[in-house]
Design a protein that fits this description.
Helices cover 24% and strands 40% of the residues. By secondary structure, it is of the alpha+beta class. The protein has a 5-stranded antiparallel β-sheet with strand order 1-8-7-6-5, with helices on one face.
Length: 144
């Protein structure tokens, strides 16, 4: 498995960041990485996310919610492509920072047969999508 980490500081409390991340039905209103999402953010629930990494073909990610700690952590795990060609997990970690804001850190771990012989370009594009999502979350919560 290969890992990508992206973080951003947001001038909003963890409660506001948590609400934004867990309201999947509102992703189309603000999220440039996941243009739409379906499902309920509950432990064990299946969700669907339509990912649009910059410079890549869109794909649907069908993970299960594997861990939830409200206002602290959310983890999704599941296949990105059939037959084990690509699998992934994505987590969101929220931490209160000095001044009352929140540090949002996303971690994406990907693996599978497609990454046996490279995949660096795909990782860069996914990372760019995560950066875009982080900036959009900050802008929405800070009223930009």
């Amino acid at each position: 498995m290969r890992e990508i980490r992206k973080s951003i500081d947001i001038a909003a409390g963890p409660d506001a960041v948590w609400r934004l991340l867990t309201r999947l039905g509102e992703y189309a209103d603000w999220n440039p990485f996941y243009r739409w999402a379906l499902g309920a953010v509950e432990n064990g629930a299946a969700i669907r996310l339509y990912a649009t990494p910059p410079g890549s073909r869109p794909f649907t990610f069908r993970p299960r919610v594997a861990a939830l700690r409200p206002e602290k952590e959310m983890l999704w795990k599941g296949p990105l492509r059939p037959f084990g060609l690509l699998r992934g997990e994505q987590s969101f970690h929220l931490r209160t920072i000095e001044g009352g804001g929140t540090r949002l850190e996303q971690r994406m771990r990907v693996g599978g047969a497609l990454f046996l012989f490279g995949g660096d370009d795909a990782l860069e594009r996914i990372g760019a999508g995560m950066d875009g999502m982080n900036r959009a979350a900050r802008d929405r919560l800070e009223g930009r």
